[in-house]
Records
---
Amino acid sequence: MIRRLPQARDRGIPEATVARLPLYLRALTGMTERGVATVSSEDLAEAAGVNSAKLRKDLSHLGSYGTRGVGYDVEYLIYQISRELGLTQDWAVAIVGVGNLGRALANYGGFVSRGFRVAALLDSDPDVVGDRIAGLNVEHIDELETVIARRGVSIVVIATPAAAAQQVCDRVTAAGVTSILNFAPVVLSVPDGVDVRKVDLSIELQILAFHEQRKADRESGGPVMAEEWQRGESA
Amino acid sequence: MIRRLPQARDRGIPEATVARLPLYLRALTGMTERGVATVSSEDLAEAAGVNSAKLRKDLSHLGSYGTRGVGYDVEYLIYQISRELGLTQDWAVAIVGVGNLGRALANYGGFVSRGFRVAALLDSDPDVVGDRIAGLNVEHIDELETVIARRGVSIVVIATPAAAAQQVCDRVTAAGVTSILNFAPVVLSVPDGVDVRKVDLSIELQILAFHEQRKADRESGGPVMAEEWQRGESA
DNA sequence: CTCACTTTGTGCATCTGTTCACAAAGGGAT
DNA sequence: ATCCCTTTGTGAACAGATGCACAAAGTGAG
């Protein structure tokens, strides 16, 4: 039986915490730019849009980096979170699919700012290959494996149409990539050990629609009962 | 005390379930296009990339729409999920900020396909105002309130630079919008009753980097045990 | 009708995440 | 040094989500 010590410095950081660390990092970066040297959990939590107990518990998973009665040193905390997230090293990212979205991503400043470097843009469309976007030459998808190997690409962003995504995914995983950010609206199947994160614009809208509908229902005198539909004769 | 009946048709659908319904919907749509009339929880779960017990529990929150020994009627289930998500009605969406990302969103087919209609594109840049994108005229941000009111916009997508986002947010909430999809890398503060969903490209990358780093650590000689760090003399 | 087989819907145990509330720790004033 | 004030770090209660495993419900063959 694996006994998990309840120590800090335990390397098992909860997934929910990991997802919030970038948020704290951004808030802290803003503060350091405004010359703030020290921040309390209360203030940082407010800036990040979470409650302060949660913030403190999250940070406690990294170690004990605050000073009671005072708060956290902004610079130091930035460094600790960056290190934990692996942002002190430089990640080479390839973007596959240079349509509207791929272009937007290539030009997105937020990528470059924090340890990420767009190392390649790839597409299959001959009209697009050769274009210069965000200072990079768009290369043909045939070069995928070569580019990944030569430039040490470890994260691939898939911004292709849905139909091409699985195929691209298969090729990049075969080439040894184990981290994929997928914008195509499909469920990718990948070998064990490969992480896929998905960003799906239409899913987000659908979730909003759900809540919006519910708000509307509540205002206009309750749910529209009994639009009951006879079961069976649909098809 | 409010006694919540453990019945199906209970309108309290868990958030986690709501977030998966669009996934099921997409899988089902694919099936109906391939002429599949009936599907088991096992197969649908596989297509959506979840486990089958979870799928069944999720669907059971909508009601009891399956047939034991047979499975679910694809068309009927599509209808039920669509209705629950509010996709049987037509949602007018306005996109504020017509940079690379805004353009990508305006052209994204997935929006239109399911009940969402891009009703307006707005920007503050005079060079962009007047452009025709995805069949729409880009309008000046000054028209924001008018456009929202006239076209019945109920969901606003913010795709502006970070610096402009809160201001746009304030204006659209003042105009009565209660659902916002935010792509700008800032924490928006909104009045009670307003739903904000956030899509943040760089956060997703940072989460991937964290896991990637961890995988790298593990391979290069196991967890770096006893990198124990003496507490206190850091900083 | 009865039996064998399939697949749903759900009670229950478990795990993960959130929030409360407070003791412990540090700072600064006197 | 002592006292008071602030703020962290965390135990414990609670809440929410997941997954197992099985009874209940349906189909179809004989």
---
Amino acid sequence: MNTLSYGLLSMLSYAPFSGYDLMQKIQPFWPAKHSQIYPLLAQLERDGYIQHELVVQPDKPDKKVHSLTDLGREALSQWLSQPACPPVTRDELSLKIFCMNEGDPVDIQRLLEQRVEYCREKLVWFHAKSELFAHKRMDSSPGIVLLMRRALFSFQSELDWAEWALKELRGEG
Amino acid sequence: MNTLSYGLLSMLSYAPFSGYDLMQKIQPFWPAKHSQIYPLLAQLERDGYIQHELVVQPDKPDKKVHSLTDLGREALSQWLSQPACPPVTRDELSLKIFCMNEGDPVDIQRLLEQRVEYCREKLVWFHAKSELFAHKRMDSSPGIVLLMRRALFSFQSELDWAEWALKELRGEG
DNA sequence: ATTGCCATGTAAAAGGTTACATGATTCC
DNA sequence: GGAATCATGTAACCTTTTACATGGCAAT
């Protein structure tokens, strides 16, 4: 079973969800399109890790609500006990900065400004989310609290770097 | 042309390299195996972006040393002027932390300790590299300096987070 | 009216990993 | 003697993206 499959089981460890919900929820951790998720859900059901119930909705399309079976829960905890694969990041910006000598310095500055903006947006989003959890006492599990804080750490450090890099390029270093 | 192709052109903007060299050099920015790189190099040559020269080595296997053509250099600077795709990260650890309720807390602590170790190793490596550049006055281009610093920023923030998370789990928060 | 969200699926293409294949040299 | 490095390639497989396909409801 591949990592995305375990990812789907991970999401379902909280509550039953539709494929559509799962697709949205898994994005921050393991980006995937619906075309990849629906077939995997069918496979997970064939293999006995999940089951589904058809929920008829009057205003919206019917949906399949998937939930973990005992076998699925077992598979999850067994997977948790094994070491995690090293993270993989692919960022076009790195490559562009690497060969920035080849282009117009203004292009590189624009790229960095875009990255600054991107990080700021992410930070606003995560700050809003974590305030929701703090104030309104939402269903914040220990895992989500850890991941939230990591996102804040990592986007902040990327933002700091990008701003520093812009200063360097403008000769203010 | 895909991003890996531009990545290869980016590496070649510094100097001519063999496919084997390129495979190693591109790893930090855009992980790829040799089986993906060799066919792409052939294609880039067919399309006129690079050319190669056969270099015979007495002690080691012969190699093809690839270099940018004018067309390749043009393609690079045109690519630099366009916005970069958003970065993509896939980290199994995120998923495991997300559903950590399902498993033994000791498993999660072990995973975080492994991540701490991983970050420390990376930091040691990047610090060594950047000292090399600083002291021995190596061929440090502006791009490489920026990327080096980013690596230090990002691994440090991941390390800080993982150590904070371990404290939280041990109830020292 | 058109865009966007909800909801599910399949098919084709592109991107990426693992395995197969070869062979000399160097280091332990 | 066995593993690691250098060096290039192909084939099979798995993963991921893009495109095809459908259709109702809500909001601007």
